[in-house]
């Protein structure tokens, strides 16, 4: 451990004094989630993809830029026995919803800035081949510590929670989002209300 660094929880990767594990649920919706995270995001202090996957039994986090390095996942995403869909607001994306297709469903999310998410899509032909779905417009992010590219841009955990809530009525979205809410509140508390108001409030 580098000198001066704080010991961290091995499960949630937060400093031990700010561990979020007691808030992380273990939910098991029928839809499987695969989160493909750009490597630059892996060490980000506000890593919502990690919290999303930790809260779902039926979810996987893959940190990579190229799926060519993960042939097993290329095979899974090519499996016609699964309904694989990419949650990405492309021009041809249709609104996510429940359908009559009885195949097991897997939703793929890209974690990174918009530029990095587009790069992940560009670099991976298997992702380009998947049907794209999007969330309904008009959603508002609770991520109060970033400047969003547009009003309804959501963090990865928020996007996953909204998608699962839509596909599975009664899904416990608030339980999944609880560690995220605590993470944001803790960051705001640490920086102080005045600094938060000065640097972030006007960016929403």
UniProtKB/TrEMBL annotation:
The keyword tRNA processing applies. One of its GO terms (biological process) is tRNA processing. InterPro entries: DTW, DTWD2/TAPT. It comes from the Bacteria. The keyword S-adenosyl-L-methionine applies. Belongs to the TDD superfamily. DTWD2 family. Residues 5-192 form the DTW domain. Its EC number is 2.5.1.25. Coiled coil: none annotated. Keywords: S-adenosyl-L-methionine, Transferase, tRNA processing. This is tRNA-uridine aminocarboxypropyltransferase. One of its GO terms (molecular function) is tRNA-uridine aminocarboxypropyltransferase activity.
